[in-house]
Specification:
- By secondary structure, the chain is α/β, with parallel strands linked by helices.
- The protein contains 14 helices and 22 strands.
- It has a 7-stranded mixed β-sheet with strand order 14-17-18-13-12-19-20, with helices on both faces.
- α6 links the parallel β8 and β9.
- α3 crosses α4.
- The structure holds adenosine-5'-diphosphate.
- Adenosine-5'-diphosphate binds next to α7 and α8.
């Protein structure tokens, strides 16, 4: 670890630079509370510099003017560099936001690299269209890069969330200004170094760390940013759309919160598998996943058996030092997030839910932020722990009896990110999947996933979709070129 370098300066126009104001903020590790480094505390002046750099790179076409096949080569090199530096990136991620290093390496680094490679590979395989007009015209429908894309991402999967935005945006030829979360800025900054090394020209990919209101808001309000792509809370997501409308009507895409229902019918094909998936998906990443299945609906006849099996798995998720190779549950991102989670646990108890596992802060002596995997039974729909996104390792178990009732309950949420149904009855699986108001419905699994499918939500879970070829729509404008043809024949 002694040779691990942290550089908290911004990357603007291909250079490492401090904030114009000279301000910095302290980056603390939730693993043990230690100071990792100082990070540039960027604000409006730095965002302006980054947008000027991004705009000039776009205007002189140093990136968007390259053939798609060339952008592909560079992006694939970028992905390979992420893998080459995978151990370093994983270590930085774990120190910065507390997730187990084995997952930082196997999941975060690999998924981010895979995403960048996937869009790189795709970009020279997407075609425009010729419209079915009369013979007197040739109408071309093409998709052009928008220009300068702003991206604001959260701290739960810093590299993956960054990759989901920057990969399609860069592949399509845009310039990007990325603002990582103030809680986990370090890997995004390293990604910018590696992007330069891979051959992405200076100014095309800029990373500007700082706080939301100080650096995020000026980006969302900027008059020369063409598009803002955001992942984070629904509260801030709503502000992003307002800021887009208040300024230049930049395109605004938001991937926001969730309170995803996981419905297990008594005829579930494999109860052990359902239990394993329910537990793993809510406790993975210390529960800090927007798509975590935090509302578990179990049909009355199997609930006791389900819970018994679930409780048997809980000790396997005991929090431990995330730097150890076999740790599966690490630290929450910071003391503030830990307090939020502990407050929800108190509210669950106060509102009459039955605490059947966990509920406590642990490993206090480390100076880090650790909370036990927590399960509440006998939760009802009116409790805060059944309605609100906790973003921590807290599972709410609710019983149901009939199908129409559980679909109604599952849909009774402001969110609509994901949902799951477990049944061996094909009709029920299709019928319930169709009725659930969610961007993704899992059937007899949770969390299986790849780059080929869109990710995003209905209702207040956001606007637009990450991943898959659909994401190109967010970062391109559709142009019609109508050519008159006077036939010489
Ligand atoms: P989370 O709970 O995941 O941290 P937030 O919505 O608070 O969700 O933060 C997600 C991202 O949005 C972070 O990069 C944060 O700095 C940024 N952010 C927070 N507040 C604002 C704001 N007012 N304007 C723009 N960006 C913001």
């Amino acid at each position: 670890m002694s040779d691990l370098q942290f550089d908290g300066r911004a990357v603007i126009g291909g250079q490492r630079v401090g904030a114009v104001s000279g301000a910095t903020f302290v980056c603390l590790s939730p693993v043990d509370g230690r100071v990792l480094t100082e990070v540039a505390r960027c604000s409006g002046a730095d965002i302006d510099r980054a947008v000027v750099a991004a705009r000039s790179a776009f205007d002189d076409r140093r990136w968007c003017g390259q053939a798609p096949a060339q952008r592909k080569r560079v992006l694939i090199r970028f992905a390979e560099l992420l893998l080459k530096h995978g151990d370093e990136l994983a270590l930085i991620e774990t120190l910065d936001m507390g997730k187990p290093v084995q997952y930082a390496r196997k999941v975060d680094v690999n998924s981010a690299a895979n995403c960048i490679r996937w869009y790189g590979e795709a970009v020279d395989k997407v075609y425009g269209e010729v419209a079915p007009t009369a013979d007197t015209a040739l109408a071309l429908i093409t998709h052009e890069p928008m220009g300068v894309v702003g991206a604001i991402v959260p701290w739960n999967y810093p590299m993956i969330m960054a990759a989901w935005k920057i990969a399609p945006a860069l592949a399509a030829g845009n310039s990007v200004v990325l603002k990582p979360s103030e809680k986990s800025p370090l890997t995004a900054l390293r990604m910018a170094d590696l992007a330069l090394e891979a051959g992405i020209p200076a100014g095309v990919f800029n990373v500007v760390p700082g706080f939301g209101p100080e650096a995020g808001a000026p980006l969302a309000l900027h008059m020369d940013v063409d598009c803002i792509a955001f992942t984070g809370s629904t509260r801030v997501g709503k502000q992003i759309h307002v800021m887009a409308g208040q300024s230049n009507l930049k395109r605004a895409w938001t991937e926001l919160g969730g309170k995803s229902p996981n419905i297990v019918f008594a005829d579930c094909p494999d109860l052990d598998q359902a239990v394993k998936a329910a537990i793993h998906s809510i406790f993975f990443n210390q529960g800090q996943s927007c798509n975590a299945p935090s509302r578990l609906y179990v049909q009355a006849g199997i609930k006791e058996r389900f819970l018994e099996k679930a409780l048997a798995l809980v000790p396997g998720y005991a929090p431990a030092n995330p730097l150890l190779a076999d740790t599966v549950m690490g630290a929450l991102v910071d003391p503030a997030q830990m307090d939020t989670v502990l407050r929800y646990i108190e509210s669950g108890k106060a509102q009459g839910a039955r605490l059947v596992a966990g509920g406590e802060q642990v490993l206090r002596e480390t100076g880090g932020c650790y909370v036990q995997p927590t399960i509440f039974d006998d939760v009802n729909r009116d409790m805060a722990i059944a309605r609100e996104e906790i973003f921590g390792p807290v599972l709410s178990v609710l019983a149901f009896t009939d199908t129409a009732e559980v679909v109604r309950e599952a849909n009774a949420s402001v969110y609509g990110l994901q949902a799951a149904v477990w049944t061996r009855d094909l009709n029920k699986a299709h019928g319930v999947a169709r009725a659930l108001r969610a961007g993704t419905v899992h059937v007899n699994q949770y969390d299986e996933d790849d780059m080929t499918v869109p990710f995003g939500g209905f209702r207040q879970s956001g606007v637009g979709r990450d991943k898959s070829l659909h994401a190109f729509d967010k970062y391109t404008e559709t142009k019609t070129t109508w050519i008159r043809i006077d036939s010489p024949l």
